[in-house]
Amino acid sequence: MAEQFAEPVRQHLYSLNLGPQHPSTHGVLRVLLTLDGEYIVEADPVIGYGHRGHEKMGENRTYLQFMPNTSRIDYLSGLLYNHGFCLAVEKLTGIEPPERARYIRVICAELNRISSHLLWFGTYLMDLGAFTPFLYCFDDRENILDILDRVSGSRLTYSYCRFGGVTRDIDDVFIEQTRAFVKRLRSRWKDYHNLVTKNVIFIHRTRDVGVIDKDLALRFGVTGPNLRAAGVPFDMRKVEPYEVYDRFDFEIPVGEKGDALDRYRVRLEEMEQSCRIIEQALDQLPDGPYRQERVRLKVKPPRGEVYFAFESARGQTAYYLVSDGSPYPYRCHVRVPSFGNLHCLTEVLRETLVADAISILGSIDIVVPEIDR
Amino acid sequence: MTEAVTNTGGDWLRLIVGLILVLIFSQLNALFLVWLERKVAGHIQLRYGPMEVGPHGLLQTIVDGIKLVGKELITPFKADKKLFVIAPVLVFMPVLVPFLVLPFGPELIIRDMNVGLLLIFAFSTFSVLAILVGGWASNNKYALLGAIRSVAQNVAYEIPLLLSVMSVVLMVHSFKFSELVMAQQRIWFIFLQPVAAIIYFICATAETNRAPFDIPEAESELVAGFHTEYSGMRFGLFFLAEYTNMFIVCAVATSLFLGGWHGPFGFSLGIPGVVWFLAKTYFLLFVLMWFRWTFPRVRFDQLMNFSWKVLIPLSMLNLLVTALVLKFV
Fold first, then answer.
1. B113 — phi, psi (to 5°)?
2. A136: which chain B residues are within 8 Å (Cβ-Cβ)?
3. Do B299 and A132 touch (CB under 8 A)?
4. Which of A130, A207, A229, A322 is in Cβ range 3.0-4.6 Å of A331 for a Cys bridge?
5. Which residue spans traverse the membrane (chain B) (predicted)?
6. Average pLDDT in chain B
7. Region of A232 on the Ramachandran plot (φ > 0 left; ψ -120 to 50 alpha; else beta)
8. Do the chains contact at A16 and B141, CB–CB below 8 Å?
9. How do A39-46 and A161-162 pair as beta strands?
């Protein structure tokens, strides 16, 4: 809403380090702000505080040993990263997972996507100063964690998928709990919309704030809900359907302007679409084995390379694996969506207020350790 | 005021006892309010709040206070040491004075001054000074930003606050609390002055830096705002002062708009006045807490726009209408 004011005076500029330790930087991100009063003249995100060397680690481990790493790259959608890595290795080696495993993976991945979006919903509103929705979201999210805990034995870093299947089969209790969760989540939409979406203060804080339009998004490689909020219906599950996503009937929610309110709406609608996918997958769930028996623990893909892109909770994520025929990948690169999403901030944050910077930073849903890897 | 000088004996005794009572009450009340806030927050957020220390965690804040007293008082490097130490004292002293004139009951006004209302607003403005001093002296950009915001916000909201109060004063022709309350024996002023009451309450929320207007200490933006660098009991004093301030603005709202110690429409139902007064005040405090745990925070410029473009014109209009009605009807 900078146009409401006269042109900032541009005297007495000073810099403010937003982070690396700050309540709202979602991990260890530092944004170097040059301020004129409360106006941001320049914003420069500084990354790399959480570098753990995941890609290099990948070169020194077997393919299966790298699996736990994948869920730690983006700890909020760990299962989606497991899933993608599995698919990449399967594509490289030519392993075909059984039908049932494919469905189980999709169900769990979508549950993980919902849990990631729920966490975003809560923390975003906390950035805006509303503390309460956070606890309601965590209450809902707790259900997902319990469900996934039952099958994977873990609540956050799942490592649930295996080349050619999953570690454990799902049972009736899982199906029952998942159906109950979907029902429960749907009953919550009304509260969320009444208390948050229709809240006047919320609307004023998000409408026309942090507009990432189509041009800007494409220029910076912004993907995921942020790109869809700008009106581009680009979702890897639709444009290049992998696994069994082409068998489900779901929509790609898109926004109009690409402001924070659109991004909020897109994510909320995406949760509903994920619910639809889960329901259809549960209905179609075939019987049969849940993993390929004849896959060696130490897979040895043939010489070659593979680039596999999939849709994580934050956008287009990809693995680029180069195999030299040994059990260890020659190169293991991860394309993370948050990098592109974060770096359009240099342009978006200009001429906004400090309070908006927090709102925008929250609305693009970055996970900084994912960028640092 | 001349009475205070000429009266001797019993009057001095009354003053001393009153002061001691004020000190005890304001401290206990602040501790209770902190507990209440945590309980309200807890129950709004699907949890219980403090439960461990004492029945339903009632002693939690006392234990927290002891913990704060035991903590090291850190003065940041290159901070303005004198001002840094003075600020918490400066914020806490003025919040005690308004208790002297608050009308808790017909017989429970320590000093019923003829400028009681003015005194309260004069002293409550002091807290801005303390916040500015504290934020400036901390040598921290977040603290300074918080202090700047606080000053701008308080200047913007004091005007509609006083204007809305003036329309009540016009009706009673007095700044004296006993007379303001007595005038509401039949009908509370909230029914005669609904606009003023709403404006007053919004401004009071902003004046006490409460959500959704808590931008001076917006924790997701400014870490902790003006008290970022304060530790131990220095932070505790800011904290207690904030809650005492909340009590004062709600008590003033009760005496100006909700009939003070009177029951509704002249029916006291045999309940003593002080109970009515406290019940109404705590209800308003509950509403303040309810706000905080329900709304997101407004942005700084929206806050200022709201005050200068909506509240001030509206309260002026309200004052004008009140004056015209009083003159011609």
1. -75, 155
2. 45-46
3. no
4. A322
5. 12-36, 83-104, 116-134, 155-175, 187-206, 237-261, 273-294, 306-326
6. 83
7. beta
8. yes
9. unpaired
Inform me whether the C-beta atom of residue B141 falls under 8 Å from chain A C-beta atoms.
yes
Q: Out of A4, A125, A135, whose CB is closest to B45?
A: A135
**Residue A270 · residue A253 · CB < 8 Å:** yes
Average pLDDT over residues B266-291: 84
Q: For the residues A321-348, what does the mean pLDDT come to?
A: 87
Flag whether pLDDT at A100 surpasses 80: yes
DSSP state of B56: G
Residue of A67, A68, A107, A73 lying closest to A87 (CA atoms): A67
Direct distance between the N- and C-terminal alpha carbons of chain B, in angstroms, rounded to an integer: 34
Q: B213 to each of B176, B202, B299, how far by Cα in Å? A: 30, 9, 8
> Could you tell me the pLDDT band of residue A114, with boundaries at 50, 70 and 90?
very high
User: H or E segment at A42?
Assistant: strand A39-46
Q: What is the per-residue DSSP string for B220-238?
A: HHHTTGGGTT--HHHHHHH
B49 vs A255: CA distance, rounded Å: 39
Model pLDDT for residues B234-253, shown as the tens digit of each residue: 888 888 888 888 888 898 89
Task: Find all residues with CB under 8 Å of B53, minimum gap 6, and list them.
Answer: B59, B60, B62, B63
**Residue B321, C-beta contacts closer than 8 angstroms, at least 6 positions apart:** none
**What is the SS3 assignment for A48?**
coil
Contact A299, A67 (CB under 8 A): no
Residue A6 banded pLDDT, cuts 50, 70, 90: low
Nearest Cβ partner for A130 among B46, B296, B305: B296
Question: pLDDT above 90 covers what percent of chain A?
Answer: 4
Q: ipTM higher than 0.90?
A: no
Q: Which fold has domain A52-340+352-372?
A: Cytochrome-c3 Hydrogenase; chain B (1.10.645)
CB A78 within 8 A of CB A373: no
What CA–CA distance (Å, rounded) separates A129 from A125? 6
Percent of chain A whose predicted confidence (pLDDT) is above 70: 97
Of B119, B114, B260, residue with least CA distance to B176: B114
- Residues contacting A13, CB < 8 A, separation 6+: A34, A35, A36, A41
CA distance A318 to chain B (A): 32
- Across B169-193, average pLDDT: 83
**A23/B211 touch (CB, cutoff 8 Å), yes or no:** no
Q: Which residues contact residue A56 at a Cβ distance below 8 angstroms, ignoring those fewer than 6 apart?
A: none
Bridge-based pairing of strands A304-312 and A14-18 is: unpaired
Task: Enter the pTM of the model.
Answer: 0.84
Out of B142, B214, B299, whose CB is closest to A205? B299
- Check if the beta carbon of residue B144 is closer than 8 Å to that of residue B136: yes
Average pLDDT over residues A58-87: 88
Q: How far is A134 from chain B (nearest CA, A)?
A: 9
Average pLDDT over residues A241-259: 86
How confident is the model at residue B4, as a pLDDT?
45
Q: How far is B288 from chain A (nearest CA, A)?
A: 14
Domain boundaries, chain A: 52-340+352-372
What's the pLDDT score for residue A9? 56
Question: For residue B6, what pLDDT band results from cuts at 50, 70 and 90?
Answer: very low
* Token digits of residue B268: 């006291």
**What are the DSSP E strand ranges found in A128-170?**
161-162, 165-166
* pLDDT tens figures, A301-311: 888 889 999 88
